[in-house]
Amino acid sequence: MKFATFNVPDGQIVVLPRSEFDRLAEKAGIFPPFPPEDRHGNSDALAFMDASIARELIRRRIEAGLTQKALAKQADVRLETISRLEAGKHTPTRETILRLDRALKFFEKKRRAVG
Questions:
Q1: How far apart are CA 88 and CA 48, in angstroms?
Q2: What is the CATH number for 107?
């Protein structure tokens, strides 16, 4: 595994490949699990979709440097909605997805401009 370290005043920063970050986040329980597969290798489609949306939302929120509270405020959705989505326990409406996407794009663009 390749990674980079950078010395900063408070210690070191470690930069990992996305796949390694995802593996560690999965192991730490940051990402909700995908539903189990049956003996044919199939899993519940809606549960898989909820977990996929949750994982992408968590990834983008972390990359944008946002807390759940900050994202909820920017997207004009309830904090509880963000929490339930990230736990993979809620299927969002189209409007909620659009609000979250607009808010995340705003912060992603802002971060790119700074760094």
A1: 9
A2: 1.10.260.40
Confidence of residue 115 (pLDDT cuts 50, 70, 90): low
What pLDDT was estimated at residue 14?
86
Answer whether residue 16 is part of any domain.
Answer: no
Question: Would 3 be classed as within a structural domain?
Answer: no
Asked whether the beta carbons of 35 and 88 are under 8 A apart, the reply is: no
CB 98: neighbour CB atoms within 10 A? 12
* Residues in Cβ contact with 108 at an 8 Å cutoff, skipping those fewer than 6 apart: 60, 63, 64
9 found inside a domain: no
> How many domains are contained in the chain?
1
Q: Specify whether the CB–CB gap between 89 and 51 falls below 8 A.
A: no
Residue 102 lies in a domain: yes
Predicted confidence (pLDDT) per residue in 40-82, tens digit: 999 999 999 999 999 999 999 998 989 999 999 999 999 999 9
Residue 90 and residue 83: Cα distance in Å, rounded? 9
Domain that holds residue 56: 45-114
